C-alpha cells in the first residue's frame, strides 16, 4: 500500500477526455516520475491530486484518506506540498517573510488570528525558517526582495517554502522547465540531496528525460490520459510502447 | 517598547507629538495677519484631520495590505454615525456608549457585507462593495426613514428619551455630547501675543482614539496576521497551496477595517450629533480611497498624511474666492490678473472637487506609491551622489548570480 | 396584463440607456482590458451636448420694437434667434424645435474627439497597470469632467425638451386591443428605444461584417494572440475607445429630453451600468445589452405600487440585489464566457 493511491481516476473537459482510468501507486519515501508527451494529462492529474480539479470518477487516497472534495489548502494541511512550473512565490515580500508563511501554516493551521503579537517575537518560526534557508543555500539572501531574485533562486525558494512545512509528499511540476543546462544540473543535485536527507516522497512531472532518469526510482508513462507503462527507469528506457508514444517528440533521451 | 521595534516606536512617538502639539503646529500665523486664513488650528478642522485619519488607517488595513479595493467603505462610516446618534437619542449624551455602539454596529454590518463580497476578488469585489454601499445609501433615503430620518438626516431633539441622561438641560435646550461631563465642544483659547491657540476637548478625545487606532494598526502590520494579509496581496495561489485558508483572513481584516470606519463615523457624530445618508454615498467611499492612495497605500503613516493633506486643502481651497485670488494676483498687469484669476477660479471654492479629481489622476499616474514614496524618492535623490558607485556595483553583481 | 405591458414599456428607455453605456464599457474592457469608471461621464457629456446645441441654436440678438411699448412705456425688446434670421421664421423655428436630434450631428465628432484624447492622453498609459489603478485614475477623470460641467452649467438640471411633434403620447393599448388610455407611452421614449436599437444594431453589424470588427472581436477573445499577429493594435484600441465614447455620448444626447441633464447623471448611470456589465457577463456584448434591458425592465416592475406595498423600497435596490445574487451564483454573468474574470 503506497502513501499515494490513485484509482480509476477519470476527468473530462466537455467532449475532451483528459484522463481516463488512471491508476497510480506511489511508495512512501520514493521518487516517482510521471512522464509523457504534451497533452498526455500530466498537469491535469497533478491538479486532481492537489484539489484544483475534482476528477469525475475514481478515488485519490493520501495516507489512507481521500483528498477528493477537499480544498487545496486542506490538502496541503494533510501533508502534500506543490512546486509550480513557474515559481509561485510572494514577490512583494522578502525571502525571510516568504519562508515564515509556510512555517506559520505548519504551526498554527489554516487560520490563526493573531493580529497583535509581533513576528519578530516568534523565535521558533524564525529559527526553523533560517535552518531550511541554510540547507538551501539561501541564508545570505534572507532580506532580499524575492521578486528581484534570479529564476533559479526563485525555484530554490519555492522548494524551500515547501520543505519548511515538512510535507510527506512533494509534488514537482516540471521543476527544470525553461532552465539552462547548468541550472538544471544544479536542480537535480538539489533534489537528490532532498531525497537522501529527508524522509519525503517525491512525485515529479517532467519533460526532460535527463532529469527523470537521474532521479526517479519508478516511472509512469502517461499517454492520451491513460498510463501506458509503469516500471523502474532501466526498463522504461527503450520500452517499445514508450518509443511509440514519443514518436515525433523531439528528444526521447 | 510597547511591543514595537525601534523604528516603529519612533514613528509612533512622532505621530504622538504631532497630534498633541497640533493646536500649535497648525496655527503658525498670528490671528490678524493676512496669512491667518492658512491656519488649520481650529477645533472643527483638527477633529476632521484625526477622524478621517482613523477612517483612512482602517481602509489601508484592507486595501494596503490585501489589495482588496473596497468602493463601499463609506457605508460603515454611515452606520457608525447613525448608531452613535441613536445612542445619544436613547441612552445619554455621553460619547462612550455611542462610540462603542458605532464600532459594534459597523463591525456586524461589515461581517455581513464582507461575508458575501469576499467570495469574489478583483474588480468584482470592488463592484460588489459598491453595490452594497449604494443599496444602503438608497435604503437610508427611502424605506429606512424611520431609522435614518431620510433626507433631513438623523438629529437629536428635545423629545428624545435619553433614559440614562437628561432629555433637556435645565434651561430647556438640547444637551451636548460629553465625556464624563467634559463637553466635546468646550475649547480653551490660549492667547500668546497675537496668536490664539485653541485646545478643544473633542479634538483631544478623537486624537487619543486615533493614536490608539494607529498603534493597533502598527501592531497588525507587524503581526503574523499582517504578514498573511500581505501574502494575500502578493500571491493568492501560493498561499492556497501553503495550507492557508484565505477567506477568514480577508473577512477578519474586512471587519476590522469596517470597525475603524464605524469608529470614525461614531466620532463624527460625537463631535456634531447628526448623521445623514450622504455620508454613505460612493463619493465618500472614493474620498477615503484617495486619502490612502495619496499618502501611500500599504504604508503605516501614509493614510494619516493623506487624510491630513486632503482635509487641509479641502478647507483652504474651499475658502478661497475670486476676491482673494484678485489680491494674490494684484502684482500682475490687469489683463494678466484677470486671466490668472479666471483660470485659478476653477480650482478653488466650489471648484475644490475639480482639484481633488486632478490630484487623484496625477497621484495614480505619476506617484502610485503616494506621498511616502515621493518622500523616499526625494531623500534618495539627495543621498544618491556619494553612493552612486556603490549602487552601480551592486546592480551589476546581481544578474551574475 | 395591461400593467405588465406598461411596465415593460417603461423599462425600455432606461434599459436602452443602460444597454448603450454597458455596451461601450464591455467593448473597452474586452478589447483594451481597461475598467473605465469615466464612461458615465461620457454619457453625461453627450447629454450636455444636447443642452449646448439647444442653447446655441436659440442664441438671439435683441432689437427694440418702437411700435410697441411695455407698461412702463419703454420699447419692447424683441429677441430674434440667429437661425430665424438666417433661414426665415418657419425653417428657423423648426431647427430650434428639433435641436436635440440635430445635436446628434454635433455629438458624433465631439465625442469621437473626446474619446480620442482620453485614450491617447490617459488610458493608454494604463493598459499594463493593475485594474485598481485603472479604476482609480478613471474615477478621478470622472470627477474632473463632472466638475467642469458643473462649473459651466451649474448644479441644477437643465430642461431640454424634445421636438414638439414628439411631445405627446401614443396610445399603445388601443393598438393591441386594450381600452384607450390604459397603456400610453410618450413618443420620445419610443424614439429613444428605436434609436438605441438602431445604434446597438449598427455596432453589432460593424463588429460582425467589417475586417476591423473582426479584429476587435478576435482581440476580445484573445488579446495576446492578436497582438502577436502583427496587427497594429494601438490604432484599433484608439478607434474602439472613440467608438464606445460616441455610443455613450449619443445615448446621452437622446436621453436629455427624458431626464433633464444634471452634472451627476453620469455617476448615477455609471454605477448601474457597471452592475449591468457584471450581470451580463464581463466581456460579453450581447450579455451587456440583454442585461441592460432586463435590469431596466426589472427596475420598472419594482417601482409598481403593488410591488412596493409588499416589499417597500425594493425599487431602490432591485438592480443591486440582482447583481449580488448573480455575482454569487453565476460569477461569469448571464452570457459571459467561462473563465473570463471569474475570480
How would you summarize the topology of this molecule?
The complex is a heterotrimer of chains A (253), B (401) and C (343).
Chain A: E1 4-13, E2 16-26, E3 31-35, H1 42-50, E4 57-62, E5 65-66, H2 72-78, E6 80-83, H3 95-108, H4 123-135, H5 151-164, E7 169-173, H6 181-197, E8 201-205, H7 209-215, E9 218-223, E10 226-231, H8 233-236, H9 240-246
Parallel strand pairs in A: 3-8, 3-9, 6-7, 7-8
Antiparallel strand pairs in A: 1-2, 1-4, 4-5, 9-10
Chain B: H1 6-20, H2 22-25, H3 43-66, H4 74-90, H5 95-117, H6 122-141, H7 145-148, E1 154-155, E2 178-179, E3 182-183, E4 187-192, E5 195-200, H8 201-221, H9 224-234, H10 236-240, H11 246-271, E6 274-275, H12 282-295, H13 302-319, H14 322-328, H15 334-345, H16 352-366, H17 370-400
Chain C: H1 2-32, H2 39-57, E1 60-69, E2 75-81, H3 82-97, H4 99-121, H5 131-153, E3 169-171, H6 172-175, E4 184-186, H7 187-209, H8 211-221, H9 223-228, H10 233-255, H11 265-280, H12 285-302, H13 305-310, H14 314-329
Antiparallel strand pairs in C: 1-2, 3-4
Provide a descriptive summary of the structure in words.
Chain C: Keywords: Amino-acid transport, Cell membrane, Membrane, Transmembrane, Transmembrane helix, Transport. Chain C: InterPro entries: ABC_transp_permease, BCAA_transport_permease. Chain C: It is a multi-pass membrane protein. Chain C: It is found in: Cell membrane. The complex is a heterotrimer of chains A (253), B (401) and C (343). With 253 residues, chain A is α/β, with parallel strands linked by helices. Chain A has nine helices and ten strands. In chain A, the strands form two sheets. Chain A has a six-stranded mixed β-sheet with strand order 6-7-8-3-9-10, with helices on both faces. Chain A starts with a strand and ends in a 7-residue tail after the last helix. The relative contact order of chain A is 0.18. Chain B is mainly alpha-helical. Chain B has one domain (6-315): ABC transporter involved in vitamin B12 uptake, BtuC. Helix content of chain B is 67%, strand content 5%. In chain B, the strands form three sheets. In chain B, strands 1-6 form a two-stranded antiparallel sheet. Chain B has a two-stranded antiparallel ribbon with strand order 2-3. Chain B has a two-stranded antiparallel ribbon with strand order 4-5. The two termini of chain B are 39 Å apart. By secondary structure, chain C is mainly alpha-helical. Chain C has one domain (2-61, 108-329): ABC transporter involved in vitamin B12 uptake, BtuC, CATH 1.10.3470. Chain C is globular and about 75 Å long. The model of chain C has no long low-confidence stretch (mean pLDDT 84). Chain A binds chain B through residues 50, 71-74, 76-77, 81-82, 84, 88-93, 97, 100-102, 104-106, 108-122, 148, 150, 153, 158, 161, 165, and chain B through 3-5, 216, 219-220, 222-228, 230-231, 233-235, 237-246, 248-249, 252, 256, 398-399, 401.
Amino acid at each position: 500500500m503506497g502513501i499515494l493511491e490513485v484509482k480509476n481516476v477519470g476527468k473530462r473537459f466537455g467532449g475532451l477526455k483528459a484522463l481516463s482510468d488512471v491508476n497510480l501507486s506511489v511508495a512512501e519515501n520514493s521518487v516517482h516520475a510521471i512522464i509523457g508527451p504534451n497533452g498526455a494529462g500530466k498537469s491535469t492529474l497533478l491538479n486532481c491530486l492537489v484539489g484544483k480539479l475534482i476528477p469525475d470518477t475514481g478515488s485519490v487516497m493520501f495516507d489512507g484518506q481521500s483528498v477528493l472534495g477537499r480544498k487545496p489548502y486542506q490538502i496541503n494541511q494533510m501533508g502534500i506540498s506543490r512546486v509550480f512550473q513557474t515559481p509561485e512565490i510572494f514577490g512583494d515580500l522578502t525571502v525571510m517573510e516568504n519562508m515564515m508563511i509556510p512555517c506559520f501554516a505548519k504551526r498554527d493551521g489554516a487560520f490563526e488570528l493573531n493580529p497583535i503579537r509581533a513576528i519578530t517575537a516568534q523565535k521558533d518560526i524564525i529559527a526553523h525558517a533560517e535552518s531550511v534557508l541554510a540547507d538551501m543555500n539561501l541564508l545570505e539572501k534572507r532580506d532580499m526582495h524575492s521578486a528581484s531574485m534570479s529564476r533559479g533562486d526563485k525555484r530554490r525558494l519555492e522548494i524551500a517554502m515547501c520543505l519548511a512545512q515538512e510535507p510527506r509528499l512533494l509534488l514537482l511540476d516540471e521543476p527544470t522547465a525553461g532552465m539552462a543546462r547548468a541550472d538544471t544540473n544544479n536542480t537535480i543535485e538539489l533534489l537528490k540531496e532532498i531525497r537522501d536527507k529527508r524522509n519525503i516522497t517525491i512525485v515529479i512531472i517532467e519533460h526532460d528525460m535527463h532529469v527523470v532518469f537521474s532521479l526517479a526510482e519508478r516511472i509512469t508513462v502517461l499517454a492520451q490520459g491513460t498510463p501506458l507503462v509503469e516500471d523502474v527507469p532501466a526498463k522504461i528506457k527503450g520500452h517499445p510502447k514508450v518509443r511509440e508514444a514519443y514518436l515525433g517528440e523531439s528528444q526521447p533521451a | 517598547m510597547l511591543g514595537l521595534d525601534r523604528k516603529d516606536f519612533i514613528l509612533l512617538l512622532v505621530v504622538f507629538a504631532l497630534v498633541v502639539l497640533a493646536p500649535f503646529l497648525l496655527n503658525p500665523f498670528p490671528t490678524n495677519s493676512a496669512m491667518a486664513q492658512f491656519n488649520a488650528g481650529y477645533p472643527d478642522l483638527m477633529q476632521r484631520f484625526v477622524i478621517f485619519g482613523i477612517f483612512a488607517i482602517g481602509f489601508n488595513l484592507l486595501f494596503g495590505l490585501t489589495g482588496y479595493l473596497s468602493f463601499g467603505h463609506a457605508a460603515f462610516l454611515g452606520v457608525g454615525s447613525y448608531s452613535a446618534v441613536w445612542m445619544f437619542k436613547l441612552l445619554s449624551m455621553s460619547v462612550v456608549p455611542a462610540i462603542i455602539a458605532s464600532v459594534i454596529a459597523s463591525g456586524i454590518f461589515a461581517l455581513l457585507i464582507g461575508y458575501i463580497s469576499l467570495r469574489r476578488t478583483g474588480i468584482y469585489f470592488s463592484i460588489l462593495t459598491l453595490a452594497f454601499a449604494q443599496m444602503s445609501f438608497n435604503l437610508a433615503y427611502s424605506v429606512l426613514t424611520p431609522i435614518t430620518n431620510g433626507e433631513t438626516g438623523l438629529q437629536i431633539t428635545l423629545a428624545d428619551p435619553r433614559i440614562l441622561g437628561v432629555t433637556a438641560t435645565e434651561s430647556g435646550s438640547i444637551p451636548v455630547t460629553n465625556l464624563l461631563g467634559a463637553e466635546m465642544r468646550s475649547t480653551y483659547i490660549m492667547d500668546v501675543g497675537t496668536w490664539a491657540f485653541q485646545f478643544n476637548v473633542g479634538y483631544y478625545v478623537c486624537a487619543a482614539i486615533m493614536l490608539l487606532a494607529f498603534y493597533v494598526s502598527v501592531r497588525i502590520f507587524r503581526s503574523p496576521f499582517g504578514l498573511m494579509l500581505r501574502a494575500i496581496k502578493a500571491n493568492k495561489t501560493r498561499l492556497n497551496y501553503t495550507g492557508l485558508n484565505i477567506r477568514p483572513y480577508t473577512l477578519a481584516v474586512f471587519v476590522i477595517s469596517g470597525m475603524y470606519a464605524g469608529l470614525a463615523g461614531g466620532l463624527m457624530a460625537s463631535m456634531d450629533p447628526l448623521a445623514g445618508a450622504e455620508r454613505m454615498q460612493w463619493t465618500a467611499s472614493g474620498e477615503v480611497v484617495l486619502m490612502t492612495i495619496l499618502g501611500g497605500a500599504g504604508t503605516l503613516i501614509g493614510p494619516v498624511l493623506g487624510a491630513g493633506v486632503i482635509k487641509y486643502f479641502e478647507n483652504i481651497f474651499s475658502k478661497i474666492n475670486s476676491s482673494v485670488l484678485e489680491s494674490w494676483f494684484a502684482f500682475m498687469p490687469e489683463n494678466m490678473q484677470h486671466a490668472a484669476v479666471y483660470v485659478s477660479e476653477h480650482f478653488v471654492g466650489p471648484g475644490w472637487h475639480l482639484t481633488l479629481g486632478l490630484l487623484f489622476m496625477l497621484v495614480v499616474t505619476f506617484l502610485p506609491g503616494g506621498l511616502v514614496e515621493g518622500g523616499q524618492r526625494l531623500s534618495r535623490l539627495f543621498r544618491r551622489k556619494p553612493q552612486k558607485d556603490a549602487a552601480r556595483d551592486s546592480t551589476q553583481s546581481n544578474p551574475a548570480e | 396584463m395591461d400593467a405588465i405591458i406598461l411596465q415593460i414599456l417603461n423599462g425600455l428607455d432606461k434599459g436602452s440607456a443602460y444597454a448603450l453605456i454597458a455596451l461601450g464599457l464591455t467593448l473597452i474592457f474586452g478589447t483594451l482590458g481597461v475598467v473605465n469608471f469615466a464612461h458615465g461621464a461620457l454619457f453625461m457629456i453627450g447629454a450636455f451636448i444636447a443642452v449646448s446645441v439647444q442653447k446655441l441654436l436659440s442664441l438671439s440678438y435683441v432689437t427694440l420694437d418702437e411700435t410697441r411699448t411695455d407698461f412702463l412705456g419703454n420699447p419692447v425688446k424683441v429677441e430674434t434667434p440667429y437661425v430665424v434670421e438666417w433661414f426665415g421664421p418657419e425653417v428657423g423655428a423648426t431647427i430650434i424645435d428639433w435641436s436635440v436630434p440635430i445635436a446628434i450631428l454635433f455629438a458624433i465628432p465631439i465625442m469621437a474627439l473626446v474619446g480620442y484624447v482620453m485614450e491617447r492622453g490617459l488610458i493608454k498609459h494604463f493598459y499594463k497597470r493593475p485594474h485598481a489603478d485603472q479604476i482609480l485614475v478613471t474615477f478621478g477623470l470622472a470627477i474632473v469632467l463632472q466638475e467642469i460641467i458643473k462649473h459651466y452649467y451649474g448644479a441644477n438640471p437643465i430642461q431640454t425638451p424634445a421636438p414638439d411633434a414628439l411631445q405627446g403620447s401614443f396610445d399603445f393599448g388601443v393598438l393591441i386591443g386594450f381600452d384607450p388610455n390604459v397603456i400610453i407611452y410618450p413618443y420620445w421614449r419610443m424614439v429613444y428605444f428605436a434609436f438605441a436599437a438602431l445604434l446597438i444594431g449598427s455596432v453589432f453589424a460593424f463588429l460582425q461584417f467589417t475586417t476591423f470588427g473582426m479584429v476587435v472581436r478576435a482581440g476580445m477573445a484573445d488579446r495576446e494572440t492578436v497582438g502577436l499577429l502583427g496587427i497594429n493594435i494601438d490604432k484599433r484600441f484608439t478607434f474602439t475607445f472613440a467608438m464606445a465614447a460616441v455610443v455613450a455620448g449619443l445615448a446621452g444626447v437622446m436621453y436629455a429630453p427624458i431626464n433633464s441633464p444634471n452634472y451627476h447623471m453620469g455617476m448615477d448611470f455609471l454605477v448601474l451600468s457597471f452592475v449591468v456589465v457584471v450581470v451580463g457577463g464581463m466581456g460579453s456584448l450581447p450579455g451587456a445589452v440583454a442585461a441592460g434591458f432586463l435590469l431596466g425592465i426589472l427596475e420598472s416592475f419594482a417601482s409598481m405600487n403593488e410591488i412596493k406595498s409588499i416589499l417597500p423600497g425594493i425599487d431602490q435596490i432591485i438592480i443591486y440585489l440582482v447583481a449580488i445574487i448573480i455575482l454569487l451564483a453565476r460569477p461569469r454573468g448571464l452570457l459571459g464566457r467561462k473563465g473570463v474574470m471569474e475570480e
